[in-house]
Amino acid sequence: MPVHVLAIAAHRDDVELTCAGTLLKARDAGHATGILDLTGGETGTRGSAEVRAREAAAAAEVLGVSERRNAGLPDAGLHNTDETRRVVVEQIRHFRPRVVVLPYPVGRHPDHRVAAELGRDACFLAGLARYRAAGEPWRPFKILHALAYREDPVKPTFVVDISAQFERKMRAIRCYASQFDGAKAAGEIFPTGQDLYSLVETQNAHYGSLIRTAYGEPFWTQETVEVEDVVALAVQSM
Which stretches in the chain have pLDDT values below 70? Predict the structure, then answer.
């Protein structure tokens, strides 16, 4: 069954940290959502691939996604090659999403950077009728890059208000006890002295403040966003 929004990330738990609130908001609006984790997280310092699989399944229940899949690509060895592109193309053709959420193209974890490039390339190739991969051709309409936790001077293209979804987002994140209980950093999240859960809240509150709400998730797009009605624009200027 096609989904409206598909989040693609390198590791189990990446989606929860960066765009879970947005997936929940889409689900609350009646849209079907899905998650594609590219690797099993088998080289992670904490936990194991088996434990993370169980945690990911529990988090998927909280998020209410229609389906969560794992591409089975190597953790800490993710590359953008003909072989890996074909794997991701077949997954995109399976989900048939209108919107795809990818990591930001810059990051300290190599898998995150590669996942952004690999996912974007696969979105294009999936639409080629003569590209040799299983499934019917399908090209997503929109690609969003999750901008959460970035320290680059990049202004979000837009921020999604997740105030009503924030508690459920945190519940999904807390499913990953093996990764986050007692942790003070993770992935692109640098330590500040806070525990990780408090740090996530602080970050989401910051993004929310940019649009004058309690909590938000930031996104960046390569293309310009269209505005239909300037009179209806939100976020007070002064």
Answer: none
